Amino acid sequence: MARLERPRRRTPPDPVAVLRGHRAAVNDACFHPSLPLLFSGAADGELRAWDTASHRTASSVWAHAGTAGVYSVAAGAGLGNKVISQGRDGTCKCWVIEEAGLSRRPLLTIKTSTYHFCKMSLVKSPSTHSAREGSSWPTSDVEPQRVTIEENAESHVVNTTEGAQEHGEGITSSGQNLMAIAGQESSQVELWDITSARKIISLPQSSSANTDHPTKQKGLCMAVQAFTPSDSAGYVNILSSYEDGSTLWWDIRKPGLPLSPVKYHSESALSIAIDGSCNGGISGGADDKVVMFTLDHQKGVFTLRKEIELERPGIAGTSIRPDNKIAATAGWDHRIRVYNYKEML
């Protein structure tokens, strides 16, 4: 009897470039939407901007002092010439991209007083994929200047108690200058206005977040993804994933309870990403599967599209390309897996 052979896997491609310079573990990285820049944050608190054309460091600052480190970095079209860094010191900082590189001091520091492992999320809006336009950026062989950012630096510092609005009505936005993070309460999610450095809302609302609230039993919030559906009139929606493997879908107009709960993972749900149309996404966790789903905006419910079993458990990160053609996951086994997202939906 003929023996069936497994189809051969493609040989992984070689990297286009290897960027060396960080002295500690790199926790996060993101591209600028229009400039040829890549931002990376490390466990020792260093934030770097890399020139993607020359593959050299364009600028570097010590963003978060001590052992806090930079846990997350984010840039988006709505932020323009700014980048946000999130540290384990309970702060998020906004940096300006100047001609000489990153600003010496943060434009503002938001004291969220949140200490966790959940990365922030800028609000994603449905958009048509457009290629990045190349532009020049100064580079040099000289090691970039590093500036220690002191806690009492001359920047705008805002506390969580200032200007918090515990309601969702009347709050509309294109989402360009908003970010979602896990809240001070381990099971809560907070939405912040980056421009004014004000907390807009907590989900569930503080008045609703009693000991009997369903989110209390779900454990820590491990991942968030904020977005504005095309038919939401500008109101922000948030997907939040939890320690018990569940994911909740929130609409800030109904902050008391989520629109819909699902539990796709048998262990902690660690990462979630929504696609460019904001109609579906991909989720990964500590178990041995990757989940792809769609969102029914009329009914406010999830629909499971595909489950992919893994040989080795653990997915720490997920991402979907803006044109919705491919999705990628970052595994605990140090492997990046790329999927044909368009065909799977």
- Shape label: globular
Count up the domains: 2
* Average pLDDT taken over every residue: 85
SSE pattern: EEEEEEEEEEEEEEEEEEEEEEEEEH
Distance between the termini: 37 Å
Q: What's the CATH H-level homologous superfamily of the largest domain? A: YVTN repeat-like/Quinoprotein amine dehydrogenase
Top-tier CATH class of the largest domain: Mainly Beta
Instruction: Provide the low-confidence segments as ranges.
Output: 130-155, 160-170
Strand sequence of the main sheet, in spatial order? Answer: 14-13-12-10-15-16-17-18
| CATH architecture descriptor name of the largest domain | 7 Propeller
Radius of gyration over all CA atoms, rounded: 20 Å
Structural class assignment: mainly beta
Count of DSSP strands:
25
Q: Percentage of helical residues?
A: under 10%
